Amino acid sequence: MSSIKFLGAVISLTFLMAVGFISPAVPDTARNDEVIVEAAWARASIGTSRPSAAYLTIRNEGDETDVLTSLKASVSEVAEVHAMTMTDGVARMGPAGAVKLPAGHEVVLKPGGLHVMLMNLKQPLKEGEKFTLTLTFKGAGPIDVSVPVLGIGASGPVQ
Ligand SMILES: [Cu+2]
Fold first, then answer.
1. DSSP string spanning 130-146?
2. Labelling 65: which of 48, 52, 99, 124 has CA 20 to 30 A away?
3. Structural domains for the chain
């Protein structure tokens, strides 16, 4: 690529960002007294026939253990926490059940580990869009977080 073409690409990208067509992925943070949900993101989906996944970090800044009991997403019929396990070199995943949050600890949901499985999508998840995920905790109650959709091959928000 010539340097002039490259400069042109940089200028047009800057322009698109400036006018808001491309918004940088800003991890949204939501809190409710003692529990903080941050750095949420999801992967774009291929249509609606395959599930997608969302990732985030939950911090319990309270003095007591809390429990993530349920999830609800605006874009799918079902949202639940899955765990990944390796059995004889084969990766499998399944419902993790209620996720415990010890006081003063954080639980990180990330590719290859715990994740929010978004099943029976009501609409395709398109890169650049956002949707609302509601996490309900036994102690802290419900917390809504805005989840930006990143590219299909994304491995996390750009810091
Ligand atoms: Cu899963």
1. EEEEEEEETTTEEEEEE
2. 52
3. 25-150 (2.60.40.1890)
For the stretch 2-47, pLDDT in tens is 555 655 555 454 444 444 444 444 447 787 779 999 999 999 998 9
Q: Which of 119, 129, 133, 138 is nearest to 57 (CA)?
A: 133
- The neighbourhood of ligand 1, an ion, using CB within 5 A, equals 82, 93, 117
Q: Are 121 and 154 in contact (CB under 8 A)?
A: no
Give me ligand 1 centre to Cα 21, in Å: 31
Q: How far is the CA of 116 from the centre of ligand 1 (A)?
A: 7
